[in-house]
Each structure stands twice: as C-alpha cells, then as structure tokens.
Specification:
By secondary structure, this protein is α+β, with helices and mostly antiparallel strands. The protein has seven helices and 15 strands. The chain has two domains: 216 residues, 3-Layer(aba) Sandwich (Rossmann fold), CATH 3.40.50; 149 residues, Porin. Pfam families: CsgG.
C-alpha cells in the first residue's frame, strides 16, 4: 500500500504540469460556443472601398472547384476534397461586402422558379376574386454582367522544411509545409458575350508544427521522458475566402481603370487613391516569384572583397593551434551564377611550442552561386593555391562554401568555411605518414560590387 501511495504523488505532479502546459499553449480543454465567422485581411478593405454611383447587377451561376484535388494523406487514401465545395456562396458574400454589386440568385435558379410558380398557383386558386394586378409577381432582376471562373489550382507541398536539435536527451524541432491555391475571376457582358476583364489571385496555406522532448535516465532503473507539441493548420476555407475577396477588389479597381462599369463610375478622380495603391502593388508584383521572393540584379559584373579568417592546421605535429588571418580578392562574373576569383591571404601554421610559420597564399577559385537573383544565396567554390614562406613553395587545393546576404546596395555580407588539402606533406617541413597536410578555415567578410549588373 505504501508503494502505491508513493507512486501516486509524482503522477499527480505530472498531471498538474501537463494541465498547466496545456493552458499556456492555448490548447482547447472544453467545448467552445459557436461564433460569427472570422474576417480576413481583405474583408475590411472590401467594405472600405469608395462607393459607386450605381450598384452593378451581377449573376453568378457556378464558381466552383476545378482542380479535382483531394486532401493529401500520409497513410491510405483520403477522398475528401482539398478545396471547399461552396465557393459560389463565398464569392456572393464578397460581392455583398464590396457594396459595388447586387448579386442575384442564379446558382439555384430552378428552386426560385419553382417557388414563384407555387405562389402563382396558390393565388389563382384561393384569390380568384382579388384584383388581378395584385396577383402578378414582380419580374426577376436580370444581370448585365456574369461572373465566371473558379479555383483552378491547388498545389501541395510547394515549400517544406524544418529545423531541430538534440543534446544530452533534450531536443526540440519545428516543421512547416506550404500549399497554394489559385483563383481566376472574369466578368462577362451578357449583351454580347465579351469577356470584359479577368483577374488572377493566389494564396498560400501554411501548416506548422513545434515539438519538444526530454529523454533521460535518472538512474539504472528510472527513466524520465516528456514530450510537448503544437500543430497549427491554416483553414483552407479562410484562404479561399481571402483569395476571392482579393479577386473581387482587383476586379473593381481594374474595372474603374478600364472604364467597364459605365454609369456606376462618374469621375475616375474620385477613386484615384485606390488606383494608385493598386498600381504600386502591380509594380511590386511584377518581379515576385513563388515563395514571395523578389529576384533582381543585386550583384554586379565585378566585386572586391575582404575576409577575416580563423585557421587551424592538421599536420604531422601535435597540439595544432588556431590563428587568425585575412584575405583580399577580386571576382569577375562570367555569368550571373559563376565567377572567377583571384585572391591572396595570410595563413599562419602553428603547433604549440614546436613550429610556427606564416604563409602568403595566392589562390584562384571558380565560385557558383545557387540563387544569383536573390539577396540571400548559398555558394560553393573550389580551386588551387600556392603557399609561400621562407622555405620552398607548397601547393594545395581547396574547396569551400558559405552564405551571402545583400545587406545594402552593392554590399554583401558573407560567412564561409574552407578546407585546404596539401598536394605534398611538407607544409611544416616534416614528412610523416600517408596523410597530406590540411587545414580548416572559417571566414566572415564583405563583398563590394562594382560595375554594371
């Protein structure tokens, strides 16, 4: 009985800690009441659009999912669609919020016509003596413009990644996944069938996961293990709503600019502020690529650079010591991705209390930038060099790589590491064993770009 009582105390403590963590992370612990639907970033923008002189009557027959995409499943098949099927309703709500349109019922027009027929039949049968004019139903509104289109693409896992670390039984990791939906919306004239305007919007859908764990042997018979995690998925319905609202706003502004709304827009100057804002967004979007990246000519035809380096030798003596040096050089870009590099640096070889020798090292490298059109880019390089000191020259080859970020116009910050391999085992004057002399370097420096892109 005592042992059971003794074990229940840690169990209660653990349960209390888990309950506290649940509250801190905002995890649901009880049922929630129903609420009004959430607004997106563009809901407020739609509602704040300048009003037209007259609202435009539009009809939407079917604005639907045209992708045929099913939800991705890690195990087995998932027959649920990735995109909500009530997209027409979302579009009609966006049209109402804009206060530019009068949407009329067309998706379920058969239900509306049947109900009007029932009203007529009932009146004819039970109101025979009433005024005939009072029995007539008002005519249905007809649309001068039809809105067509739909969700034409749902791309899964366009960007995935993660980060994690574990040390001494304590670890943490995070993962993310990004999907994307694409929407096209077009306005069609009912008088002649002309497509007046087409707009195209897209929206990413992000899912993130954060996990932490602890695994430790307290003693030979006791093991402590704990885990915590949180996953958050952006609702697809809200992503579709935001993309549709953005498309409706774009359609309104494009229509104002091209004069397709007729008498609804009396003076274009009344809407100049939203036209200017939309124009700026279009100019910024002209160079944007997938992943919300903006490629450009951040680098020039040539560059001069300087590095501060930390170097450590691995030779035939014991107790190698780290030393500091520097490198200066010049780059000439053969293409946006490849450049030829010529440099010289000061390299100090030292084994504590044994040997210390300083080298002047000219090097020639070919460098490859993985993303030459972006501010941030990894790079790789390789080449050969000569190490000059009081003794005869020593020859070597080197490979390296690093990261560069353009911090200002024509200035790039670089962090890199380099591995040097001697062609002979004679850097320190001792030949011993089969392994050649080698060194590892770490550098931090700046690139100064000159010339034309």
């Amino acid at each position: 009985m005592k042992s059971r009582s003794y074990l229940s105390i840690p169990s209660c403590v653990v349960l209390c800690i888990l309950q506290a963590c649940s509250s801190l992370l905002g995890l649901p612990s009880s049922p929630e009441r129903s609420t009004l639907g959430e607004n997106t970033l563009y809901t407020t923008e739609l509602k704040n659009l300048p009003l037209p002189k007259e609202k435009i009557v539009v009809g939407v027959y079917k604005f639907r999912d045209q992708t045929g995409q099913y939800k991705p499943a890690e195990n087995g098949n998932n027959w649920s669609t990735a995109v909500p099927q009530g997209i027409t309703t979302i579009l009609i709500k966006a049209l109402e919020d804009s206060r530019w349109f009068i949407p009329i019922e067309r998706e379920n027009i058969a239900n509306l016509l049947n109900e009007r027929q029932i009203i007529r039949s009932t009146r004819q049968e039970y109101l025979k003596d009433a005024d005939k004019n009072s029995q007539a139903l008002p005519p249905l509104l007809y649309a001068g413009i039809l809105l067509e289109g739909g969700v034409i693409s749902y791309d899964s896992n366009i960007l995935t990644g993660g980060l994690g670390a574990r040390y001494f039984g304590i670890g943490a990791s995070t993962q993310y996944r990004q999907d994307r939906i694409t929407i096209y919306l077009r306005a069609v004239s009912t008088s002649n069938g002309e497509i007046l305007k087409t707009v195209y919007t897209s929206k990413t859908i992000i899912s993130t996961s954060v996990n932490g764990s602890f695994f430790r042997y307290i003693d030979t018979e006791r093991l402590l293990e704990a885990e915590v995690g949180l996953t958050q998925n952006e609702p697809v319905q809200l992503a579709v709503t935001e993309a549709i609202e953005k498309a409706v706003k774009g359609l309104v502004v494009e229509g104002i600019k091209d004069g397709i709304w007729g008498k609804s827009v009396e003076k274009i100057s009344d809407y100049q502020s939203i036209l200017d804002e939309y124009g700026r967004e279009q100019r910024n979007n002209a160079t944007r690529t997938i992943g919300n990246r903006f490629p450009g000519d951040y680098r020039r035809k040539m560059a001069v650079f300087g590095n501060a380096e930390a170097q450590k030798i691995r030779d035939d003596y014991v107790n190698p010591k780290m030393n500091f040096g520097g490198k200066l050089g010049f780059k000439y870009f053969i293409s946006p991705a490849f450049n030829l590099e010529i440099s010289s640096d000061i390299f100090t070889l030292e084994n504590e209390n044994i040997v210390k020798r300083t080298f002047f090292v000219p090097e020639v490298n070919i460098e490859y930038l993985l993303f030459p059109k972006y501010k941030f880019s990894p790079y790789l390089y390789g080449g050969a060099g000569v190490m000059y000191s009081q003794a005869k020259p020593a020859y070597k080859a080197q490979i390296g790589g690093g990261l560069e970020y353009i911090i200002a116009k024509k200035i790039g910050l670089r962090a890199s590491s380099q591995y040097d391999l001697g062609l002979k085992d004679d850097w320190e004057g001792l030949i011993n064993g089969k392994r050649k002399d080698q060194a590892l370097r770490f550098a931090l420096g700046l690139n100064f770009y000159i010339g034309n892109p």
